[in-house]
Amino acid sequence: MGVLGFKIIMITLIISGIILILILISYLKSKKIKLPNVFLVTGGVKTGKTVISVWLSIRQYKKNLRQVKRYNFSRNLVKKELLELPLLYSNIHLRNVKYVYLTKAILERKERMNYKSVVLIDEVSLLADSMLYKDNEINERLMLFVKLFGHETKGGYLIVNTQSLKDCHYAFKRCISSYLWIHTRSNNVLFSTFKVRELMFSSENETSNNFNEDIEKSTVSLFMLNKYYKYYDCFCYSTFTDNLNSYNKIDFKNKNDSLKCNNLLSFQNFKTLKGVDNDEK
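Below the sequence we write its predicted structure tokens.
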């Protein structure tokens, strides 16, 4: 081995060591999330709610699966009946991991999940929002599903996310005492950094921690490997508009044209706005 080859190896080892040290420091400084059996992730649009939920769901599912497999190994030695293996249920499509697509029959408690399973519900307020209280049967079924989730799954985990806690159906809100709120997200080559806060919540008066303090100072860092972005489609809901025509007419106005707005784009017909055409041309 020549001198040049030795130098290249040393430089590679030094760079690898620096990267490992940075990852270790980041891990030690990061927030360690201890999941309750029912867990909520909130945050603004595209702040990373789904990817954190997917990451936590897969991590908890693999942990539960290892526990049951170890337990079954010991039972198999003494010729006892083996326990069923937990499953990962999801309402969005996942890749690189085995999962079961979540159905209404499960949510309505007409079918049961495997014990110690993990359930992921993305955009849970689209599943059932705060206005669904008018349907008493759905209220009861969802309330029992969430309230008894830990009991009926014998240690399973329910992980949901939404943009606003207050828009969730009360069946979810009444079972949540704390939740994770994502403030900002930044990405680099290896991992993503999230600024998050763990907030307390009271379903009786629907109040959470106040924001009088400096938000930046009260947030903590959460680090996640970027590989979890490959486990799902970040724009999976675009399928609902992919088949629609796009409006691409570019309007070049002359300098003498009026800049007044004579067309109000609205789904309402305002009686007091005279001379304004609400109809889209």
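The helical segments are 3-29, 49-77, 104-107, 124-127, 136-147, 149-152, 170-173, 215-218.
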